[in-house]
Amino acid sequence: MSAGALLERRFGVLGPRSPLFYDDPLQVVRGEGVWLYDAAGRRYLDAYNNVPHVGHCHPRVVDAICRQARTLNTHTRYLDETVVAYAERLLGLFAAPLNRVFFTCTGSEANELALRIARECTGHQGVITTSHAYHGNTAAVAEISSAFTRPEKRGQFTRTIPVIDPYRERGSRTDEELTAAYLEDARRAIDDLAAQGVGLAAILLCSAFSSEGLPAVPAGYLSGMAELARAAGGLFIADEVQAGFGRFGTGMWGYTCQRAQPDIVTLGKPMGNGHPLSAVITTAELMDAFTNASLYFNTFAGNQVSCAAGMAVLDVLHDEGLLDNARDVGTYLVDRLRLLQQTCPNIGDVRGNGLFIGVDIVADARSSRTPAVARQIVNGMRAQGVLVSRTGPADNVLKIRPPMPFSRANADQLAQTLGDVLKGVYH
Ligand SMILES: Cc1ncc(COP(=O)(O)O)c(C=O)c1O
Fold this sequence. Notes:
Largest sheet: 7 strands, mixed
Oligomer: single chain
Number of helices: 14
Strand order of the largest sheet: 4-10-9-8-7-5-6
Distance between the termini: 36 Å
Shape: globular
Bound molecules: pyridoxal-5'-phosphate
């Protein structure tokens, strides 16, 4: 069947607004490591997908899923060692006092539960996020997901703070001065909630600021946010759905790069390498307070097959040294892209942590830093066999977030292709 015919069938059942990547949508039929293959057998370098965290169809994860699926799969209301062993292993990756886990199935569910815990335990309702955030698709989380929810649909308890953009806003300011200015935005939002008689339940931020365009966060920003939240009687929730599981290469969690101490951490996407598995990590105190007030049960979350997938992901991350790889290849790729920047005035900024890299596309870096929509570049790279995406309020930041086994050779191919495509787009 032709791609055009499949597209028509898809429109007929999923509707024409069900999101699809690329102007010429890609039909992939197989994945392996950092590669995706289309129906004609053409291979694409995957520099975008973080769900297949340890690589598409990693044999150890696939085997773990199959083995457990052949043995037993129920929910968590039976005693079972698989779930306990995985929870112990996972919690071993967090510093005190984060020592309890609720399993969930998606990032949205994890954030929904995090908000419920925050609201129950603080007795407050207000939530602060950024003005271009995405945290999920449930009713409560959609209200605060400002990237896709119009202001009038955000509800009376949501406040947003402007997306930070140090590349354009820093001027001659130091990190300390920039952070102090940015924290004022949060202070104003807290005051505004208070003026409306609404207490702060939580500040919720993605540790990578992925929807926000992957800004280079100044030192002290995230930890300052956590302190502000607690000083106002609220909690700080670190959304690690994108940043988590070692993507930054310097530790398992993005917030540790910023020395922030969250009260709640939410996990998702990479956790099961494609198997739906997510979690809320919190303290015993918050868990007890929440579960005293309401029972939390989730039929599919924490089932044995999910936990087997999650355990295999942790094994592979460790055994294949994938955090070190993220750090090494991430640094190498940033260097390559900065080299390209020297000859391409449309690359305004290259920034990143490990294998989470943003390339800020501008009309002309020499005369202005005006954002230029990156759509044509993303489509051009897809045509040349390299998959990336774009992000940020102005849709101008190339989002590079490949599976963790991405190699230096893969980085070379990506940089070479980007150079070629930029030449074509900007002549
Ligand atoms: C930062 C962040 N949080 C939460 C979510 C929601 O996760 P899910 O799509 O698994 O519900 C997403 C999804 O893109 C995300 O990027």
